[in-house]
Design brief:
The complex is a heterodimer. By secondary structure, chain A is of the alpha/beta class. Helix content of chain A is 50%, strand content 12%. In chain A, a hairpin with a 4-residue loop joins strand 5 and strand 6. Chain B contains 14 helices and eight strands. In chain B, helix 4 packs across helix 6. Chain B is globular, with a radius of gyration of 18 Å. Classes of the chains: A alpha/beta, B alpha/beta. The complex binds iron/sulfur cluster. The site of iron/sulfur cluster has 15 residues of chain A, from helix 14.
Chain lengths: 491, 261
């Protein structure tokens, strides 16, 4: 796995190979089950969880409906507090803005605190191409970066690694990026944490530029908020002279009172904590405290297009808690990399094909990366009906339809490769619309049942590779009814 | 009380025994059950695969077939959930697309309140948990995703099973996890589906139960197919067939009559 998602195979193919990886599956199963059980306990402590969840969804929906208004309010407040706001329509633009801002400081190194938005835009690679080294400082992100790997989970990007693997990565790779791992490093968690602490401390103390994301932006005061567990984020936010925050436009909330709801929903849903250990907030710049210069890069990259879709827009409510990943049986088996984007799991399956469109084979396969079991919807703290959006996007893939791309309304053609399915669905539709035809088909199947293969040809073959088909009964229910009851009661 | 059986297309074609069991059971409880032959499919396969517009005629057909009945009972959690959750949505989407969804909305409004999954109908409408069944076997219950999360069946199926004479209910480890069927998911993502199914089957085998039961034959098709492939002793049984069984049936060796799965 090298540091890019481009050129990933479609989900079924990627997942087929990752399900074979027994170590990956064991790591994932252990980690997701532990955290999902803890989350369930943390949520059960609150008797108003259902109301909090509804409130969270309502605030996000209201904000999204008036997003233009709140973003302008935010820009005004940030500017008034001494910050500068930059608008980025897409990933390339965001990366170019950040690279320019870093270059203007004259620095060639930056420290980063975990930010999904810059994962989404591939910022590190873009900075490297501009001759700038970006150091990830979130512990899990550091593991991913040192391992020349990709994150596979929203909250725990290195969830696919176990302690032994992490020790090996630290031993072999830390030295190349800065302070090497201590001699004889074991896989004890405290030793691993200490090695990371020493390695990172050096980076924090030397860095002149920090790059961050944000969990929330409060429009009324222009305040940005990061919640985290390690304190590394706070170092990145306070020590450098220049701070550049790259944030998706959907992260705005109108007021501090609204923020209160999310500061309850997020920690319990994500880390199963009552309150996250560090909540850092920053508003523009302040004399003698923190960075001298503050830039906010507001990232669109498909978000306003997503907003134009009345069913799909609920994906923008997401607060990236990762609860849906931890309960998803598909994520658990396939692993995060199979989703081919910064957003894996159920939320990735609905967000990525909206942000990127469904043109590539990978993106068109994502809405099918679910058995629609509904576990994701049940845990989502902002009540995103992920199964509803999945089905909606499947419709877009197989039928095409109206979408907005880069602000322009267009009509999508159906994706290729669904012609046989479409024909079968129409034929089934015809039979279901004409019970006489259905009956004839059932009778034919019943009469020829001895000839039926136990394994299917064509697209069904993979199914019958691991399962045996049941034999078709001699008589359908419909025929049995007519034969035994039809005279007296049926038509 | 006019009650109709909505047998569903899968049961109609592949599991007629389940439909017959519902008739036997309800008649034993004194309910006269009709079977309007105009019925066909709830539209779930089309809807879930992205062919929503193909489901619109099926919504109308459902309404026509069951219009004269007070209750529609179906031995399928997922089909009941399809009617209840998605029929109103189908009407809404039609309206949102600028077509006249009023007729669909009316059809949905008639269909939704009277459509019951079998165990719901028994517990909530007939208010029985002891249906006079006899099934001298060890059984484990898998709560299907649609039964669990969309219909919120809760402990209704278990309460019914607990009253069955001779039946020993065994706890299924990780019961709430999806079995991996998911309709076309099994075809479109066969590797993940099989991995999920393998875990479910392992859990079923761990219980040592003779039978695994659910409120939905589609999940049983998947679980049963894997059990059969592995040559496991446990057999898949629809809950209706357990609840319909009585003492005289038990003299016949179980699972030999009708259509084996
Ligand atoms: S979709 Fe919901 S559960 Fe999943 S990460 Fe977003 S907020 Fe959390």
């Amino acid at each position: 796995m090298s540091g890019t998602y481009l050129g990933m195979p479609a989900f079924p193919a990627a997942a087929a190979s990752s399900t074979q990886d027994t170590r990956l599956r064991a790591n994932l199963r252990y980690a997701t089950h532990t955290i999902r059980d803890k989350r369930a306990r943390a949520v059960a402590e609150l008797d108003d969880w259902a109301r909090l969840r509804a409130a969270g969804a309502a605030v996000k929906d209201r904000t999204l409906r008036h997003l233009d208004h709140y973003l302008e309010q935010l820009e005004e407040a940030v500017t008034a507090a001494g910050g500068q706001v930059h608008w980025a329509a897409d990933a390339a633009e965001a990366n170019a803005i950040v690279a320019r801002l870093v270059r203007e400081t004259g620095e060639r190194e930056v420290v980063k605190v975990k930010s999904m938005a810059t994962q989404e835009t591939g910022l590190n690679r873009a900075l490297a191409e501009a001759g700038i080294s970006a150091y990830e400082t979130d512990l899990a992100e550091l593991i991913v970066q040192l391992g020349d790997d990709l994150p596979s989970h929203i909250l725990v990007p290195a969830i696919h690694r176990n302690r032994g693997e992490i020790r090996d990565i630290f031993r072999e790779r830390m030295g190349r990026w800065g302070r090497p791992a201590p001699e004889g490093l074991s896989d004890a968690p405290n030793e691993l944490a200490e090695a990371a602490r020493l390695h990172l401390r050096e980076k924090f103390l030397n860095a002149k530029v920090g790059i961050s994301g944000a969990n929330f932006m409060v429009a009324e005061t222009g305040t940005l908020v990061v919640v985290e567990s390690e304190g590394n984020g706070r170092m990145c936010l306070t020590l450098p002279e220049t701070l550049i925050s790259v944030v998706g436009i959907e992260k705005v909330v109108p007021t501090w009172q609204d923020l209160e709801i999310f500061l309850q929903l997020l920690p319990r849903s994500s880390t199963a904590e009552r309150m996250n250990p560090y909540t850092s907030m920053w508003t523009g710049t302040a004399d003698g405290d923190g960075p001298r210069t503050f830039h906010l890069v507001l990232l669109d990259n498909g978000r306003t297009d997503t907003l134009a879709d009345t069913v799909g827009r609920q994906a923008l409510r997401c607060i990236r808690c990762s609860a849906c990943l931890n309960v998803c049986p598909v994520y658990e088996r396939a692993g995060g990399h199979a989703y081919g984007s910064a957003y894996p799991g159920p939320i990735g399956a609905i967000l990525t094909p909206q942000l990127r469109g469904t043109a590539s084979e990978l993106d068109a396969s994502l809405p099918y990366a679910s058995s629609l079991c509904g576990a994701c919807y049940e845990v989502c703290p902002v009540a995103i009906d992920i199964p509803e959006v999945l089905v909606h996007l499947r419709e877009r893939v197989v039928q095409g339809g109206k979408v907005t791309r880069r602000g322009v309304k267009t009509v999508l053609k159906p994706a290729k490769g669904h012609a046989a399915e479409r024909a079968a669905m129409r034929a089934a539709g015809f039979a279901f619309g004409h019970p006489g035809v259905l009956r004839a088909g059932q009778r034919l199947a019943g009469r020829t049942r001895r000839l039926h293969p136990r394994r299917l040809p064509g697209p069904g073959r993979a199914w019958s590779d691991t399962r045996d088909l049941p034999p078709v009964p001699a008589e359908s229910f419909r025929d049995w009814w007519r034969r035994t009851r039809g005279e007296e009661r049926g038509k | 009380m006019r009650v109709a059986l909505f047998v569903t297309c899968i049961n109609d074609t592949l599991h007629p025994d389940t439909g017959r069991a519902v008739i036997t059971l309800l008649e034993r409880l004194g309910v006269e059950v009709g079977f309007p032959e105009e019925q066909s499919c709830c539209g779930q396969p089309q809807f879930n695969t992205g062919y929503r517009h193909l489901t619109e005629p099926l919504v109308r057909r459902f309404d026509r077939a069951f219009r004269d009945y007070d209750y529609v009972v179906t031995p399928s959690g997922s089909c009941a959930a399809m009617v209840r959750d998605n029929y109103p949505r189908i009407a809404e989407r039609a309206t949102a697309e600028g077509r006249d969804g009023r007729e669909l909305a009316e059809a949905a409004a008639r269909a939704v309140p009277k459509t019951y999954e079998l165990t719901e109908f028994l517990v909530d409408v007939l208010k029985v948990t002891d249906v006079g069944a006899y099934y001298p076997h060890t059984v484990t219950y898998h709560p299907t995703c649609h039964g669990l999360r969309m219909l919120r069946l809760g402990d209704r199926p278990r309460r019914l099973l607990e009253q069955v004479k001779g039946l020993e209910l065994r706890e299924l480890p990780g019961a709430e996890e999806c079995c991996g069927f998911g309709g076309t998911f099994a075809v479109k993502n066969p590797a993940v589906s099989a991995a999920m199914g393998a875990d479910k089957v392992r859990a079923v085998r761990e219980t040592g139960a003779e039978a695994v039961c659910t409120v939905d034959n589609s999940c049983l098709l998947h679980i049963g197919g894997m059990l059969r492939r592995e040559g496991a002793a446990a057999r898949p049984v629809h809950i209706a067939e357990i609840l319909a069984a009585t003492e005289p049936d038990a003299r016949k060796p179980a699972g030999t009559e009708g259509s084996p799965r």
